[in-house]
Amino acid sequence: MNRVYVIGAGAVCAIGGNLEESLRSLEAGESGLVPAPASLTGTGLPVGLVKESDAVLEAGLGIPSYRLISRTALLGMKAAREAWKSAAPKIRRVGRIGLISGTSVGGMDLSEKYWKGHRDEIRSGRPLGEAALDYLRMHACGEGTAAIAEYLGLGFDFVTTISTACSSAANAIMLGARLIAAGELETAIVGGADALTAFTINGFNSLMIYSGKPCRPFAEERDGLNLGEGAGYLVLSSSSEGALCEVAGWANVNEAFHQTASSPEGDGPYSAMTKALSLAGLDPSRVGYVNTHGTATPGNDASEYAALRRVFGSKLPPFGSVKNLIGHTLGASEGIEACFCAASIAGLTSAWGRPDCILSNAFGFSGNQTSLVFLKCGEPSEAVTVDRKEIEPVPPAGFKRTSRGDYDLVAEVKISEGEEPDYKAIIKNANLRRRMSSLIKRGVAAGLECLSSAGMLDSEGKLKEELGGLITATGFGFLEDTLKFGDSIIDQQEKALNPQPFMQSTFNTIGGQLAQLLGERCYNMTYVHGRSGFGAALADAALLMKEGSGPVLVGWFEEDNAVSDSVLRQLGRKVLPHEARFMLLRAK
Length: 588
Hints:
alpha/beta; Peroxisomal Thiolase, Chain A, domain 1; ten-stranded mixed sheet; about 20% strand
């Protein structure tokens, strides 16, 4: 297994237009939280706002004025360009190179603006014209990643997008590290980007976890989070030349506890941290600093602290959160914070002391929990070397089907639109089932039926054998829930909103619901890169099995939606299949 090194980093956030500025502000403890501008939301809630306008970002990036690009993508372009510029002089051989980006909102910053004034026109299915399509073409998360790839112009061999809510960038970093460790890539640009939107601000506010004051992670009087925006990317390499640090360990689990909350005991965070340290071959005593997820919500901070005490006992190292300075940047959070981790270990800032090892956490909705271990180059570890079979190179973006020579297809179940099964018989948890939207029920049912047909479930609906992974993919996800919550923001003028459609709009909801029903704390990932997302999921499953995992459940889901179908047709693109489809794969 190759070792993985960080050779470049770039970030933009509320406390800096680049990594150097951000580090100076971090060291000074300067907060970038300000009242949300009225052009974004009427709530006036505190947000971590990047100071540069879209026009300033476009000018700095050299984007032609006639191109309309989402703010998420613009932030991503700026941070990824900085990361690559810092890494390029150190690279003697690029080799196979990948771009893996995480995001939560994708291009919603554009699409929600157009939706506010033209939703009836869009719903009608009438021809919209190029001006309207420009606002809508970047809604899907993968479009932003594709724009970043085009802008960098590096001829990527591998491009994909991950959306697991607030752990998205962490999972992008982890996937890049795994691909380099396995020898499938030599270089990878990894991280995430997210812009502020009225949708997410109102969504978290509807959950009653958004503070009206600057947030205070881990403080006794904490009362909620503040959102922020930004982007952060690392350049990973199999070569240590000029490296800032090593990515020595990583782990992802699903806590299988609740859709939006963590367990009081911190079971998920504990599992992610201990597995990441184990892979790195490090005793907890080697950790010099913990960059916590630290959102400042009462429940999540308590859960993470309980997990920290379980991992470190009475010898708890210094720990903290940067979200009181930059806000919670959702899918971008670990991208930005990983840059701070690498810079701290490399001695570029003394904000967190001079740690040789940092453990960094990122936790998302639907129980998705990820921990990363950053280690000073040359520091000894006892990381396990895994003997692997020869691994075929991952195909370029667009993914051909992963070779069946890698695995056996044990079972496959597809539930198409209009072919509704007896959900009561399949999803026996009535409380959970009643809260599910139609697509979530279809997806969960397809996953459970796939496991059942493979003989994997007992009479109580629990697994007879642990899964090695639960991986899903989608193009637009739960668009009906997204549109429903977007409508309520407009119609109710951002007041007294029902949080249910917001919670169900998260792309990794089906994977999280399956994990919760099964009580399964396995690896859990969601790809959102258009039609190629399912290929990415299959490639990830093959990699998991070659790493020695048990059987992997892989699924695709998409709903029949007049809005997305109409927009896709007018853009000259194929309509995605309206179905929920799951496959159970087992290594040969």
